[in-house]
């Protein structure tokens, strides 16, 4: 195995490249745009996530001997194309939404500029990363808004492919979760990790009491005991008998949670364990979290629903050629005409228009060419949404790694505050703000 | 970055391990079982996939310096546990369903045996791989049955995280797809790759005709031209004018496919291109494929729906302790008691019971202990479903790599034939055959 990411690519990108090298169009200056035509599931906003991961993967997007041999042996491309790929390194530019930013239909999330050859080969990698991570972040942000001040832990690794699980933990963290069960996500992205024991821990022991005693011996009284392996009432009683009233918490992983949480709170208080927290972890999604708002719950653990985007596991973003030069060197805005998948040609600049600090529109200024597009600075009530991510092949490392992840989270939590109140509602609806396209000049 | 897979693990597995090393229960012989309580989405069968990938990942499940440092610095486990992990290598045994096999509620898909310490740490990795890959394979198998003799290509990489995309291509192939657009899946798993051109190819050129001409120049007349960038009727006419009536195929990626496919077939035939194939690729799932059965379509390309499990992106499998020894060395079957998540304790042997070659039941023989469980050989009308995958730490490499993938596909296509006709129906229902639990002895 190599660490190259270059084959995480659909074959047609390389066959197009081969044909373009042959007819000379490979060198045409081109602009590709990554955007979403709509918000999946009647969501009121989307959350951009994956940008930092994408930039790191782009560093490894090189065709080494192994990759070239596979392409040669499989007859995927011809000798001229192999030669081009051997030296390939993305030397174009990418600007786009900051990771953690909100997006709406038509928001120009990423704009990739270079020759056609430079940019066409990044389609699959860019979409894979952003579609997955943004789907998770969008669901996670809704959950974190529904949870209010109560902390959320992501614990869905087992319900996602092993590497997506790490990416999902990161996306959930950016969108407001406070911790993850996934150790690799802790190592790679600096996310706090959590977790104490499963049902197997209790079942391994001859009695529940033995299990609780051993856990406290190892992890201290401040630990969280899982009390629903046998009978919850007995479990809680045993937990407090063994740990004392200073027990950190109990975890409930089954049953009708509002009913069970209320009963357990009453029982804990009656036993004098008024400071013992209640964690719930059974099949939660944003709706279940909202329904628990009035219940005595202190901590939510969310699994399946967050890593699978709560019903919408992919964000539906696309990567389209929106402008390219003609043989005379003039820019031409281009777009597919088919009625059900139409897109908007031209280069775009995006602003969030605010009124009294509240977002009222996603303003997208469209230009056919490379004319200077007015910037946010000229609009006192607008916030410019795009930043430079890759400049002439140079990747801005501020967006990568642990630091990039932390700053994406801060950015998300900050810009989410700009949204009108209707953005908080969980029901299906139109986007919280409209996207307004404006012609440049 | 290291290639270790050991941190693709939920933190609680290591905290349980630490506590068990401390109280001595870590050494208790234990049996964990990976199974599904139900079939997601009212599906009539599930398809086991991921086994070959899991075995390869298990080879790299070792705690190296980097992993140990992270666990130490983060205070995840104590010194005794670090010492244990430093030498950890799975030395237990795993037997289970062959990859590509069908499964039903309660099927003992994997059985992991060893000490508690051996087996508890594999929970997340095993579930991540099998839940994802089986969800994709289950959806893919339904699509491939709906497509009948018409070939299917998987092209959903852009709608899945970059590494899951590779795993999804493999799972779809095992379940009957014939090819993938994903080059890495071609390299790693030997899956045929496909793909020619996107809309950007046409938009890059000054005219559609220029684009078609250049593609044919590069890829030959046998290529497939994408004809829906502007007007489909004009696109088809241009395609045949440029390529001649020997054009390999045209691809349709938008519109109402039954209507459009019929019109394009009529047009192609009228132009004399009676051998030109029609590929359709727009938002297909098993229902859309079934609805196109009477349409003149030759080839399906499926994206989003297959890589996201067509509405059910995770299989919902769990990994539970089902038996362990007590201090006297006697085996005890164990199970969680909670009513909504109850599971069945004991060690299990599984058989598909057939009548006249048609499956009638999933028979699961349950034993509390390690008594010999009667094998399939003793049941002339049954097929034994479990094979040894890891024997005392030795991994059977027949299930791994390109060869393991190909043989899983063969196995799937063979055992699918045993199913009763009702298994073919796409509507939500009970499983196609019941699971019957029988006590051993």
From TrEMBL, chains A, B:
Native species: Microbacterium profundi
| Enzyme Commission no | 6.3.4.21
Recorded family membership: Belongs to the NAPRTase family.
Per the record, what are the reactions this protein catalyses?
5-phospho-alpha-D-ribose 1-diphosphate + nicotinate + ATP + H2O = nicotinate beta-D-ribonucleotide + ADP + phosphate + diphosphate
Q: What is the lineage of its organism?
A: Bacteria, Bacillati, Actinomycetota, Actinomycetes, Micrococcales
**Coiled coil regions in record:** none
Q: Where is the Nicotinate phosphoribosyltransferase N-terminal domain?
A: 7-131
Instruction: State the InterPro entries in the record.
Output: Aldolase_TIM, NAPRTase_N, Nic_PRibTrfase-Fam, Nic_PRibTrfase_pncB, Nicotinate_pribotase-like_C
Cite the entry's keywords alphabetically. Answer: Glycosyltransferase, Ligase, Phosphoprotein, Pyridine nucleotide biosynthesis, Transferase
A GO molecular function for this record? nicotinate phosphoribosyltransferase activity
Pathway annotation from the record: Cofactor biosynthesis; NAD(+) biosynthesis; nicotinate D-ribonucleotide from nicotinate: step 1/1
Q: How is it modified after translation?
A: Transiently phosphorylated on a His residue during the reaction cycle. Phosphorylation strongly increases the affinity for substrates and increases the rate of nicotinate D-ribonucleotide production. Dephosphorylation regenerates the low-affinity form of the enzyme, leading to product release.
Kindly indicate whether the keyword Repressor belongs to this entry. Answer: no
Q: What does this protein do?
A: Catalyzes the first step in the biosynthesis of NAD from nicotinic acid, the ATP-dependent synthesis of beta-nicotinate D-ribonucleotide from nicotinate and 5-phospho-D-ribose 1-phosphate.
Its domain of life?
A: Bacteria
Signal peptide stretch = none
Respond yes or no to whether keyword Glycosyltransferase is given for this record: yes
The entry's protein name is Nicotinate phosphoribosyltransferase
